[in-house]
Design brief:
By secondary structure, this protein is an alpha/beta fold. The chain is built from 9 helices and 16 strands. The chain has a single domain, classed as Metallo-dependent phosphatases (Purple Acid Phosphatase, chain A, domain 2, 4-Layer Sandwich), CATH 3.60.21. Helix 1 packs parallel to helix 3 and helix 2 packs parallel to helix 4.
């Protein structure tokens, strides 16, 4: 285990400033002070595909991850709307954030998911209007792919606030992989399918929340949001010492690795509360009780004895079954999946393992989000052909030392044998478009 595990979804510093408003131009398309124009192909064809992810719209700007950047996002959406060469806008997950809510807050406020999604739409009215204007124009197809922070948001509730949006979903709620029309060599998904803490969990906690699919990442995100809302306080409690039982078998060994990830998270995401306080209010996805930090942590009743846990009992033993239901093509060993759950490079590596190295797939371009680490990586596939992986980054207000306000633009190749498919990564920091990386290939 590395001590520098970076739990991306819970290290966000949420701004308490009010939403910035953008200056609306009569023609926002590529004015000279907005930097380069990423939405032109030099001709008249409407063929470009824009991928954006990890926007994290919240129901309350007091703690939402995207607040200061809403004005920039609205401006970019206006530019996309009037760009004559864009044919599709793909939202690759984590659009509507059901996870980043401080632990003591009742996410649904005693109501239901429908009301919650409507509150997100109202809180972010400008951005949602811009998305809906693009959809209504019917010039650019807007496609939504689910992520982990909107894992249980139903298709009906997405359509409620974005009527007419195209949803690319698997049969399992919370997952989707998308290849744009006439681009079968491209695969776009959020990337949480391969993450032990973030992939749908159809097996854990069924006795207390029948039918739920919430993975443990939901709970550490609730704790992380509390850490931020309490202004990164010193820890109000200490973790007990746990001595591994080296002779208890593989299941206990895996549970100990799972504990170590939790220990790091709790020590990093400090909160004022005692660990036995019932502070995590649920009332989502079948959960009704209020839980403590201790409910999540594997524990021993005697030093060196067997580990047990209250929530997610047996989770270390069902990973293979979860992967089957979640349609993971190349299964990841449980020890690797648990230990690397918070690793951005592991997310990137799964694009290569699952798609490029897999002889059952012929994808040449793969785009993930999830890690919040925008990048382009060139590699070869199982046939020695050049392939490109891109991560579409994030739009959260603070991404530590990393960039934000990112998006990917794919320009498909033409019939001419010399034509290439271009993949370009940009950011919109300072409301100026900057090219971060680019690559190309022909398939």
């Amino acid at each position: 285990m590395k001590n520098s595990i970076n739990i991306v979804s819970v290290i966000i510093v949420v701004s308490l400033l009010s939403m910035l408003t953008s200056c609306r131009q009569s023609n926002p398309y590529n004015p000279p002070d907005y930097g380069i124009n990423p939405f032109t192909n030099g001709g008249n064809e409407r063929n470009m595909i824009v991928v954006i992810s990890d926007i994290h719209l919240g129901a309350d700007l007091a703690y939402a991850e995207c607040n200061k950047n809403l004005g920039a996002l609205a401006l970019l959406l206006e530019k996309i709307r009037v760009a004559p060469n864009i044919r599709e806008l793909v939202i690759a997950g984590d659009l509507l954030d059901e996870w980043f809510v401080p632990a003591p807050i009742d996410t649904y406020q005693g109501k239901d998911q429908r009301d919650f999604v409507l509150r997100i739409a109202e809180t972010n009215r400008g951005v949602m209007n811009d998305f809906n204007n693009i959809i209504k124009d019917r010039k650019i197809l807007v496609t939504y792919v689910p992520g982990n922070h909107d894992l249980t948001i139903t298709p009906a509730n997405v359509n409620l606030v974005l009527p007419g949006i195209h949803q690319a979903r698997d049969t399992q709620l919370g997952l989707g992989t998308y290849s744009p029309a006439d681009c079968p060599k491209i695969a776009i998904e959020h990337g949480h399918r391969y993450n032990f803490f973030c992939a749908p969990d159809q097996f854990s906690n069924q006795d207390i929340a029948p039918g739920n699919i919430m993975p443990p990442g939901y709970f550490f995100t609730r704790i992380g949001a509390l850490h931020v809302s309490q202004n990164l306080p010193p820890a109000g409690d200490t973790l007990p010492v746990v001595v591994p039982n080296t002779s208890a078998g593989q299941s206990q060994n895996l549970l100990y690795v799972y504990l170590k990830v939790w220990q790091w998270a709790i020590n990093y995401l400090t909160i004022k509360n005692k660990f036995d306080e019932k502070i995590i209010v649920t009332n989502v996805n079948g959960f009704t009780a209020t839980y403590s930090v201790n409910d999540l942590l594997p524990y021993q009743t005697t030093a060196g004895g067997l580990l047990n846990v209250n929530l997610y009992k047996g989770i270390q033993d069902t990973w293979d079954q979860r992967q089957t239901l979640n349609q993971v093509a190349v299964k990841i060993p449980a020890a690797q999946a648990i230990a690397n759950a918070a690793s951005g490079p592991e997310t990137d590596n799964q694009a290569k393992i699952q798609y490029f190295d897999n002889p059952n797939f012929d994808k040449r371009i793969v785009v993930f989000g999830h890690s919040h680490i925008a990048k382009i990586i060139s590699t070869n596939n199982h046939s020695g052909q050049k392939s490109i992986y891109a991560n579409s980054g994030t739009w959260i207000d603070n991404n530590k030392e990393l960039t934000f306000l990112n998006f990917v633009v794919i320009t498909p190749q033409k019939a001419d044998a010399s034509s290439q498919t271009y993949v370009k990564l940009y950011n919109f920091e300072g409301k100026v478009v900057t090219e971060m990386a680019k690559d190309s290939l022909r398939y």
